[in-house]
Amino acid sequence: MHHPVLTHKPAILAAMDEFNLIQRFFTRTTPSALLGIGDDAALIQPTVGQAIATSADMLVEGRHFLPDTDPYRLGWKALAVNLSDLAAMGATPRWALLSLALPDADPTWLSGFSQGFFELATQFEVELIGGDTTRGPRNLSVQIIGEVPPTAALRRDGAKLGDDIWVSGHLGEAALGLAVLQQRVQLPGDASRIAVDRLEQPMPRVALGLALRRVAHSAIDISDGLLADLGHILERSQVGAVVDARQLVCRPVLQSALACVAGLSYQLAGGDDYELCFTAGTDHRQAIAGLSDTLGLPLARIGKIVPNGLTVLGMDGEPMVISKTGFNHFAD
Ligand code: ADP
Ligand code: MG
């Protein structure tokens, strides 16, 4: 922790000192690290021949999650959004650092949070090797560290003319979940539960990312909405795209909601999906269809890479009007 210069309040979390808090809630064995939590820095030994893939993503209360969110689900999501970034690189996640600003040291909250975090960490064999803890408005920041053979990394700048564009999963459900929580829409019980689950406990597509090494030409994870994130691939690859919205996969239980609530806006621009959007040559269609079966995850071929522009065909097969200033008009 830094010495607090701007406040005379103790920076440690009074009820339980910082050391005990870390010891009790965040210290687990870290067999794959040379040195884990407890020193000034952790020591890790990367695998020979692999590049380190690392990124950080933070969740801020009031901005990325509602104040009363279940701490277990926050712990899960704080790690999930970071795993999603590594999935989009085709990297194997290995280690994480967790930096927390917390208003207080509430053991019930901390216990739930750490259980959610470690639930997902265990599933993906990620070891927590360090972090930082301080008092402040609730802010959950994870740095993830993974490995990928340098030439196999999935990047945003690799899309090629003629590539198919694919997306995993069911887009729009998380955005619908947020609308449910904010009481902007009402759904039947099971639909509402599915949508909120998808918002609060996204499943990072790590296995898909690994399987796409040497298959996909480019990839990105969808956190800001399909069109915005596909836009990043187009920009970095200096190409355009035609997307056919009729190819997006929709679960029956949510079909009517996604069809009537706001047309295609949730699926095209909703955000918080944490699915992968990737491009691949047409020669890989069968392999990708097979991958969908193996993973039990829908992989929809939704369009094509073209020289320039971004054209979206709506449900009538006609191009939709999309403003140049972004896709904000989709958000309600
Ligand atoms: P320093 O004062 O050297 O920054 P800290 O007191 O912040 O050390 O942290 C002590 C140890 O606990 C370090 O190994 C650090 O990485 C780890 N740590 C601190 N906060 C967390 C956390 N929220 N999760 C995991 N490890 C943490
Ligand atoms: Mg520190």
Describe the structure in your own words.
- With 332 residues, the chain is an alpha+beta fold.
- It has 2 domains: 18-148, PurM-like, N-terminal domain (60s Ribosomal Protein L30, Chain: A), CATH 3.30.1330.10; 156-313, Alpha-Beta Complex (Phosphoribosyl-aminoimidazole Synthetase, Chain A, domain 2), CATH 3.90.650.
- Helices cover 33% and strands 23% of the residues.
- It is built from 10 helices and 10 strands.
- The protein has helices spanning 18-26, 71-89, 107-123, 173-181, 189-200, 206-211, 226-237, 252-260, 265-269, 285-295, and strands at 51-60, 92-102, 127-135, 139-148, 164-168, 216-222, 240-244, 275-280, 299-306, 310-313.
- The chain has a 6-stranded mixed beta sheet with strand order 6-8-5-9-7-10. The chain has a 4-stranded mixed beta sheet with strand order 1-4-2-3.
- Strand 2 (92-102), helix 3 and strand 3 form a beta-alpha-beta unit.
- Helix 2 packs parallel to helix 3.
- It is globular and about 60 Å long.
- The two termini are 40 Å apart.
- The model is unreliable at 324-332 (pLDDT under 50).
- The structure holds adenosine-5'-diphosphate and magnesium ion.
- Magnesium ion is lined by residues 1, 132.
Which features would summarize this protein structure in a list?
single chain, 332 residues, alpha+beta, 60s Ribosomal Protein L30, Chain: A, Phosphoribosyl-aminoimidazole Synthetase, Chain A, domain 2, 2 domains, 6-stranded mixed beta sheet, 4-stranded mixed beta sheet, 10 helices, 10 strands, 33% helix, disordered C terminus, binds adenosine-5'-diphosphate, binds magnesium ion
